Amino acid sequence: MVKNVLAAAAVFLLLGAAAYASFFIAPTDAKQGLIYRILFLHVASAWTGLTAFSLCFVANVLYVLRRKPHWDWLGVAAGEVGLAFTTVVLVTGPIWAHPVWGIWWTWDARLTSTFVLWLLYVSYLLLRTLIEEPDRHALLSALFGIFAFLDVPLVFGSIRWWRTQHPQPVVMGGPGAGLDPLMYKVLFFSWFAMLALMTLLLRQRYRLEAMRGDLETMQHEVEAA
Amino acid sequence: MALLSNTAVLLGKELRTEFRSRELLTTTVVFILIVIVLFSFTFEPTSDESRRFGPGLLWLAFLFAASLMLQPCFLREQHNDTLGSLRLSVSDPFAIFLAKLAANTLFLLLTELFLLPLFAMMYNVPVAGVLPWLVLVLVLGSLGISIAGTALSAISAQARMRELLLPLLMLPLLTPILVASTEVTKGLLDRAPYVQWKGIGFLAIFDLVFLTALWLFGEYLLEE
Fold first, then answer.
1. Chain B residues interacting with chain A (CB cutoff of 8 angstroms)
2. What residues does each domain of chain A span?
3. Does the pLDDT of residue A3 top 90, yes or no?
């Protein structure tokens, strides 16, 4: 209990430091002014969401191959946490776009593919709730999770090739792209803070799922007896 | 080799089952026809507008139709309790998937080829000149829809709310197919038709990726 509180306190300190850095340490953007500072939340959440989905994929594959329930617990925890971070991305995106582009939403490559990604993982989590038997829902949702993750680069590629308006990739985006070095540092620090938050949430959610799994097993045993 | 001969036998079974009643084909054709007519109410289809919106409309209709058409694919086996015997009868369960997805591709293609001239006539878009290319896109697109759709229908057949669940799983997963085939079709229906090789290559890659995934993970989908 004390350990949990300490871990949570540490994560919130980190997040506070990241927020301070994004507001007061990173220099103001020459063209966009203050609004660009949402980038530190937006991009860091996007990367963290993708990290969580990758974890979910690894857990899904391992579940299918090994059939140990803890891979299923990790899968659902990572899927949910990833979905939460992706939701932050989808909310902060329009908040930035409205003053800068003059519109809330546009059907451009990264917006649309993030939205499709979000929908895929909503379906993944929904699927789990619609299959009664614990072993079945673990296996089938793991398989759907694998298909969904394989689909992500294809969704991204198709939409990027045929529909686009987003600013060109700023980080690792080729010539002409790039951020001020200090902004980079703040961005990576924000990502680090977000990853810490992800780990905290993941741990809690995993434990909850583990308890739920144990409860289900016990219920089955009682019913069988 | 056993895989191919098993697949051929199972494909024969799928086709026989369908062509005895033809209920899947008939209902799907009528469904797409309804969608095409309803779409015409949402915008005034002048010839230019048809060229712009027609391809997307057509592929949306095919996609929705497929999400209904693929429902009974595994459900039928479950109702008749035949999935177990199917699995026992073949050495590699991938044959079951191959047969089912080949049958589904064929059914989809048949309905599409039947509806294409009707669409061309009603929306005033000539298709005769680019027909071979159009057929290529239809084959690649339908194959992709069937590969992913067959796998997902094996999942949804085991869940509650399955009628609603299959489109929910299928439609977002098939976004790449929708985007790519719509773009290629748009190029073909243009006033100066052109072939978008990038799109055709993309469709082939999609088919290949999901076929490989199905080959690797398919057997787990049929576990009891």
1. 148, 151-152, 155, 158-161, 165, 168-169, 172-173, 175-176, 179-180, 183, 198-199, 202, 205-206, 209-210, 213, 217, 220-221, 223
2. 38-224
3. no
